Amino acid sequence: MSDKKSLLKCILIIGDIILMYGALFLALAIRYGDFSFLPGPRTQAFIFHFSIIAIFWILLLFAFDFYEIPPLRKIFDVLRNLVIFIFLAGIFGVVYFYLKPQSVITPKTILVLDILIFSSFIFIWRYILNRVIKTRGFKEKIVIIGLSSQFKELISNYINQSNYEVVSFFDPAENITKLKEIIEKNRVDTIVFALDIHKDKELSQKIFSTLPLKLNYISFITFYETITKKVPLEDIDELWFLQNISQSKRRIYEISKRTFDIVFSFIGLLITIILFPFIALAIKIDSPGSIFYIHRRIGKNRKVFRHYKFRSMKETPDQYKEPWRERDPGQITMVGRFLRTTHLDEFPQFWGILKGDLSFVGPRPEWEKLSGIFEKEIPFYQQRYLVRPGFTGWAQIHYPASTSVEEAKEKFQYDLYYIKNRSFFLDLAILFKTIQLIFR
Fold first, then answer.
1. Secondary structure class of 271 (helix, strand, coil)
2. Cα gap 200→202, rounded to integer Å
3. Which residue, 56, 194, 232, 255, is most buried by CB atoms nearer than 10 A?
4. pLDDT digits (tens, 9 = 90+) for 357-370
5. pTM of the predicted protein model
């Protein structure tokens, strides 16, 4: 179902790589006044070092959504992310060449020119591709057989901003021949079943005897997951978990993830130790109370652990009894507001990651008291305990902190998507997305 989208992403990446080297050659030509581009030791040195930098730049572009399709979904977001990219790309370039003092090149001006030229190329390249997508009909065309109320949410919140186009909502009571005409006329790629086709044998026989096999045929759940990046809680059952949630197939992933957690949490703890005296002093001066906010949270296999954060709210006698204090901004201290904005309040969690209570990526560790409520009110909520909770996670980057059971239910659908699809690359994407959110 994502063949066109994957192709467009590949085109974007290949185009960016070509433009990176084009920007470098243009920067060299402007700096040295030589447009002949004759190869030589100095040119080769520039190509070598800037190729290493280019790897980091590509990762940054992934982190800041430059490979989303369509490529210019929101102009303001693209321009904002481009400014952040310029800033971070410049910092990385400076650090890289500072650590390479023996290099035969001194590319201060070249680095600045290269970043600015490449950034201009990026925007122009995405504008051109965006126009091509719109005029050439690169959107994947779909027909939905049967109508679910949940599709109203899809149409309003997701489809219009996606790479999909709904050609028709087809009523299964209509003549199947009409459906075939719609498919041929509009060159439809995919059929989505918003009803259980297995329960109506007569209908299924009519559809599959009339329609071409070359089409993609998918269920509502699959389509819903693809376009929303969450699992529709109302449409799953115990069988879904048996088919989709597997522990045994991910042993190598789990080992590599734990290794990553140990290495980078240790680095994070070293930074926390350096900053601790300053943060502790600021918290104490700003408001009376303890330095840390300590909460009992539920972890993997329902293990209860102590969750540490730098205190960012006023201490009250009922602070461990109030389930949703977050909704009251008046409780946040002045220093606490700074700690939250910079995410420094989260740094003590590196200790929990090192111990194994947490991971860098996973569902949010929920308060023991709230977990009991959610387990009663939200179906299958206990499945969150199959994996370690995380410092950041799929639900956290897609939905704000929940302040009600309904909001917790919405976030849980994102958690289920992560538990089902968790992998090294998804974890990496979540970490990049988290970095992007820090700069907002």
1. helix
2. 6
3. 194
4. 999 999 999 888 88
5. 0.78
Q: Which of 160, 1, 12, 166 is nearest to 73 (CA)?
A: 160
CB-based contact 142:163 (threshold 8 Å): no
Cα separation, 302 vs 149, whole angstroms: 35
Neighbours of 364 (CB within 10 A): 21
Using alpha carbons, list the distances in angstroms from residue 58 to 65, 74, 216, 326.
Answer: 11, 20, 32, 36
The residue type at 63: A
- pLDDT by residue (tens digit) across 90-147? 988 888 887 775 555 667 788 899 999 999 999 999 988 888 877 666 778 888 888 6
- From residue 72, alpha-carbon distances to 69, 75, 177, 400 in Å are 8, 6, 38, 24
In 3D space, the residue among 433, 437, 383 whose CA is nearest the CA of residue 413 turns out to be 383
Specify the 3-state DSSP secondary structure of 117: helix
Q: What is the dihedral of CA 35, 41, 43, 49, to 10 degrees?
A: -170
CA pair distance 50, 331, nearest whole angstrom: 48
Tell me the two tokens of residue 177: 């021949």
Q: Rounded CA gap, 385 and 297, in Å? A: 11
pLDDT tens-place string over residues 137-151: 677 888 888 866 666
Assess contact for 81 and 64: CB atoms under 8 A. Answer: yes
Token pair, residue 259, equals 């290794």
β partners of residue 36: none
Per-residue pLDDT for 254 more than 80? Answer: yes
Contact 380, 304 (CB under 8 A): no
Q: What stretch of H or E contains 435?
A: helix 424-438
| DSSP code at position 62 | H
Among residues 282, 275, 439, 261, the alpha carbon closest in space to that of 347 is found at 275
